[in-house]
Design goal:
By secondary structure, this protein is α+β, with helices and mostly antiparallel strands. The chain has one domain (18-274). 16% of the residues lie in helices and 35% in strands. The chain has 4 helices and 19 strands. It has helices at residues 45-57, 163-169, 189-203, 255-269; strands spanning 3-7, 28-29, 63-72, 89-98, 104-114, 119-124, 131-132, 142-144, 149-160, 178-179, 185-186, 208-215, 219-227, 231-232, 239-241, 247-249, 253-254, 280-287, 295-303. It starts with a strand and ends in a 5-residue tail after the last strand.
Amino acid sequence: MMLLVLVMPPLALAQSPDMQTTGPCSSIVSGAGASGTSYCIGITKEALERLTNITAASQGRRLFVAEAWLSPTPMFGRPSGYKQSVNEQVFLTVRATNITAAPIVLTAAKWEIVQAKNLSKGGGSFGYRNLLWPALSVNKPIKIEAGEQVDIKFGEGLELNGMASRLRKNRDLDSAYTLPVEPTRINGDRYINWFAEQMELLYGAKAKLRLTFYEGDYKPIASLSLPLAQGVDFFYHGEAVDQKGNVQYAPRLAYDAFLGQYLEMRAKIEPGFRINTPPTTLIEVTPDPSVWGKQRYRDLGIQEQPED
């Protein structure tokens, strides 16, 4: 009996040679010029210096934000009926873990724009599970059990003014592969690097979003900042470890998630646009008692993916 097996290729997760995804290193890329310098510690030396006080102040924290990402609206890059000619709204989601031994009930959450130019709030999100606004009156509290991890979406929208045209002009994105995870991710740190550089050019090197979560009657439970000129991939989970083994709590925005969702959105609404699908290798498996493992394998080559 002969068996044919379709084998997807290993994910070509592009990384700088000085970066690792195991051991004491985390993968992270920064804004302009980041492609020229990488650090095994997972974050630039300058950023680590700035993070020292944050780490000291974070001792005893109860809510740990491992991941954060922006999501484009279904009409991102399309003509808008408002004063702005193009829809450039995105929404923020964080993946947070209750690291205490008791339940946490979040009642509100907000984000603020800090040291940025050309950024503004705009629009709102409704009807989603685990959605939080700054006002208690419009929220359904989110209960997070001890050790539980949840995705929390912020109700207020962010306008990435000027970004839609830059994304459209970057034809390199059109041929990128995506990864089948949730949310969809783009595959390759050069795309993350490019997007972080655009964020820095458009909104400033020091631009950041400052997040605050509340429990009870507006009692702050956690606060953190997300620099816009730094982006990470899905290997990064909220912490960087320096060469001395010191852990730095440093949540960052996963730009691979934004770009992956952007391509996914385009594939759904743009006739003729499709996401590049990795090729599949066809392997023939034949029983053979004379060989080790009692099976013989033969590579039949690459099978092209059919058009949808």
